[in-house]
Design a protein that fits this description.
- The protein is mainly alpha-helical and 326 residues long.
- The chain has nine helices and two strands; from the N terminus they run αααααααααββ.
- A two-stranded antiparallel sheet has the order 1-2.
- Helix 2 runs antiparallel to helix 4 (80-96) and helix 5 runs antiparallel to helix 6.
- The N and C termini lie far apart (87 Å).
């Protein structure tokens, strides 16, 4: 609404009032519009943050309950350090995502409304502005794919480092006894360097995205005005200020697009990791009640035709018995 109010103010300043005291009416309307906008944004931020906290708490509770039911093989795959990582990092990133989720459709809606206002002011030159915006979004697509790849590698590197640190802290007496501190220090430093390399790649891709999207508020007006020049379109002062005000409204959503991409990728990677953990094998906790004959009750332990394994999915059982007692 801001650009339309601005255009109306310019027309009033040029003496093109449609009714008496139109300027006062426009000032009151602009004030009420901004108050409504501020109130709506505050409620939006509060509700999305509240939903994010609820999702984070729910995931933390689910991870804690799952950790208590993990099978022995699953505990070897998911170390205590990794489980802490699921709660402190992955659940946090998923909880932060709802506050940014609505930026996807709100940015698209603002873009459509701004293009409508731009078309109203500069006519066919809007096509050039639209092409420039689309090229900016398409140019960021390869960067988003690389960012997704680097984010997955970074989370794996963090898990490896945390697993190594957890094992070192749990076996510190053995390390001191055999003087293995230097060796394990070098191992952890090597894992840390690997993690730094992926962090560097992620920050580089983010830098490219930031430069790309922050330059669009300068590139789009320049291309649009050049198109107006070639098409012999002569915008007046009201059209120019309305066009610049429309692009000014779009600057903040466009600049937030890299952050939305980053948080969407981080939330997707974290969600996949948590789902993999929640789908891990669990201990069987069955209450079995069977009837026995008097002969079987003569023994304290009676096993008949059983294969016993440490984990249910191992191919080779640790104990095989057809009939034994004692």
């Amino acid at each position: 609404m801001g650009p339309l109010f601005l255009r109306a103010f310019i027309e009033v300043a040029e003496g093109k009032e449609t009714f008496k005291h139109e300027g006062y009416a426009l000032a009151v309307g602009l004030f009420l519009t901004k108050c409504l906008e501020s109130f709506s944004e505050r409620q939006w931020f509060f509700q999305t943050r509240l939903i994010g906290l609820q999702i984070r708490s729910m995931l933390s509770a689910a991870i804690y309950q799952k950790q208590q039911r993990l099978s022995n093989a699953a505990k070897m795959t998911h170390s205590p350090g990794e489980i802490v990582n699921y709660v402190s990092i992955d659940a946090y990133k998923i909880g932060e995502f709802p506050s940014w989720l609505h930026q996807i459709w709100s940015t698209s809606l603002q873009l459509c409304l701004a293009l409508f206002i731009v078309y109203y002011t500069v006519g066919l030159a809007t096509v050039a502005a639209l092409i420039a915006i689309l090229l900016t979004v398409l140019a960021s697509s390869p960067l988003a794919k690389l960012l997704l790849k680097y984010q997955k590698k970074l989370m794996l590197a963090q898990d490896k480092r945390l697993k190594a640190i957890t094992e070192v802290l749990a076996n510190m007496k053995v390390l001191k006894l055999y003087s293995w501190e230097t060796h394990f220090k070098n191992v952890i430093e090597g894992l840390r360097k690997e993690e730094f390399s992926w962090i560097s790649g992620i920050l580089t891709q983010r830098g490219f995205q930031v430069v790309l999207f922050w330059s669009s508020p300068v590139i789009v007006p320049a291309i649009t005005f050049w198109t107006c020049y070639f098409l012999r379109i002569q915008p007046n002062a009201g059209n120019v200020f309305t066009f610049l005000a429309s692009l000014n409204i779009l600057q903040e959503p466009i600049r937030l697009i890299p952050d939305v991409f980053r948080l969407f990728i981080e939330a997707k990677v974290s969600l996949d990791r948590i789902l993999e953990f929640l789908e891990a094998p669990e201990l069987e906790n069955k209450n079995l009640q069977q009837k026995h004959n008097d002969k079987e009750l003569e023994y304290s332990i009676f096993i008949s035709s059983a294969e016993i394994s440490w984990d249910t999915f191992f191919l080779q059982a640790n104990i095989k018995e057809h009939k034994s007692g004692g």
